[in-house]
Specification:
Layout: E1 7-10, E2 14-17, H1 25-40, H2 49-61, E3 67-68, E4 75-79, E5 88-94, H3 122-141, E6 149-154, H4 164-169, E7 176-189, E8 193-195, E9 198-199, E10 203-212, E11 216-217, H5 227-243, E12 253-261, E13 267-268, E14 271-280, H6 283-303, E15 307-316, E16 320-321, H7 323-337, E17 342-344, H8 354-358, E18 363-371, H9 391-410
Parallel strand pairs: 5-6, 5-7, 7-18, 8-17
Antiparallel strand pairs: 1-2, 3-4, 4-6, 8-18, 9-16, 10-14, 10-15, 11-13, 12-14
Helix pairs in contact: 1-3, 3-9, 5-6, 7-9
């Protein structure tokens, strides 16, 4: 670990020295190796036993005392003395992988587990919080950590409604005053971050619908419930109805992903099933969505003489970045890499269970650039060929450490 001597200017803050806590070459190499090991051994939500054990062992080597969550995977780790009064700053990472195959070629760290891959960058999120914890632990030993910090390694982010709710039930937010996180963004260059005040992700719920009817012969649809036609009407008309029943600025949208009905070309089926996602840009629209969807589906089903059963599964609300905490991330990045290293970012339609923490405490999430500078290929998350420029790890570690140091000075 080394300290810099350059200076950076923050708006309204005057000239402040670059903070301590930059990465040594040995730690940088170790973190890359740690990330690659996680990438080779992905684990699904609530099954992250190997990942949890690896994190626990490395944090203990750093002289810390991590605690595995009561749910069996994931852990928390506190750094610095807590007097029971001054709140902690929490750094959160998600540790689970996705149930898709790793299709990358030409890299030695491809997943070794069939149909499992870290295709959303959680291995990078985990490694950056781990690296920050190692750096902050050393600063604490030197008497340079101005406030207590909690590391949260959360399982099951990819499961709905997200492992954050279980982690909160385990007490991870006890004594926490603010919480910060990063999420990999393949549209932003490594070394940069994207920031936005207010909503940065969308709400995401799951909708499952079953329509029932007596069935019959396709020669006589007028004598029965034409269930295929009914389900087609639900698919096309529910989104149209919603567009007229909710403020367009809420961005409430239903997208169907699965439909099943019938097995023979001349038989009207007795049952049809469809499922999809409900996404929304703001909290009021998200809170109103279940009642609106139930009413719209029932109306259309009744019109076509079908009986409907609706299973509306709450997922996650939008991540709404607190302005004060977003400013903290902004200033931390300026201190480390300069104002040029920050981009404005748009609101994503993806869901993130980090939002559940923000229902309890103020916080913010930054987009962590993972694209190799100069790369013009279109890349996205949740694809088997997803990979990152590993320089992003250092950016994430320094962002977290600088935020912890700056926040402690301001409080």
């Amino acid at each position: 670990m080394s300290s810099g001597s350059q200076e950076a200017e923050l708006p309204g803050e005057g000239v402040l020295p670059v903070l301590p806590g930059t990465l040594s070459e040995s730690l940088r190499a170790e973190l890359i190796a740690f990330r690659r090991d996680l990438h080779m051994h992905p684990e699904l939500g609530n099954q992250e036993f190997r990942t949890t054990a690896a994190l626990k062992a490395r944090l203990e080597r750093a002289g810390l005392a991590p605690e595995v969550l009561a749910i069996g995977t994931g852990l928390i780790c506190d750094i610095g003395d807590w007097d029971g009064v001054r709140p902690r700053l929490a750094l959160r990472a998600d540790i689970d992988a996705l149930p898709i195959p790793d299709t990358k070629t030409g890299v030695a760290y491809r997943s070794t587990v069939p149909d499992r891959a870290h295709a959303c960058g959680h291995d990078v999120h985990t490694t950056t919080v781990l690296g920050a914890g190692i750096v902050l632990a050393e600063l604490d030993r030197q008497g340079l950590l101005p406030q207590p910090v909690r590391l949260i390694f959360q399982p099951a982010e990819e499961l709905m409604p997200g492992g954050a709710t279980d982690a909160i039930d385990c007490g991870v937010l006890d004594g926490v005053g603010k919480i910060i996180a990063v999420h990999c963004d393949p549209r932003v260059d490594a070394g940069l971050i994207g920031l936005r005040t207010g909503p940065i992700t969308s709400a995401c719920d799951r909708l499952e619908v079953t329509l029932d009817g007596p069935g019959g012969h396709t020669a006589r649809p007028h004598l029965t419930t034409d269930l295929v036609n009914a389900v087609a009407k639900v698919i096309t008309e529910v989104p149209a109805l919603l567009a007229r029943r909710v403020d367009a600025r809420s961005g409430l949208a239903v997208t169907w992903g699965r439909v099943e009905a019938g097995h023979a070309c001349n038989v009207i089926p007795q049952r049809a099933e469809l499922s999809g996602t409900v996404r929304c840009l703001d909290l009021p629209g998200w809170r109103a969505a279940p009642d609106l969807l139930h009413a719209a589906i029932d109306e259309i089903a009744t019109l076509h003489r079908a009986k409907s059963q609706i299973n509306y599964v709450r997922g996650v609300p939008p991540v709404v970045n607190d302005p004060v905490v977003t400013e903290l991330l902004h200033d931390a990045q300026v201190m480390r890499r300069g104002a040029y290293a920050i981009e404005d970012t748009e609101q994503s339609l993806g869901g993130e269970d980090f939002s559940w923490y923000l229902e309890r405490v103020p916080g913010a999430m930054a987009r962590l650039g993972v694209r190799t500078p100069g790369d013009t290929a279109r890349r996205d998350l949740h694809r088997g060929d997803f990979d990152v420029d590993e320089h992003a790890i250092e950016t994430g570690v320094e962002l977290f450490t600088a935020a912890a140091l700056l926040d402690g000075q301001r409080d």
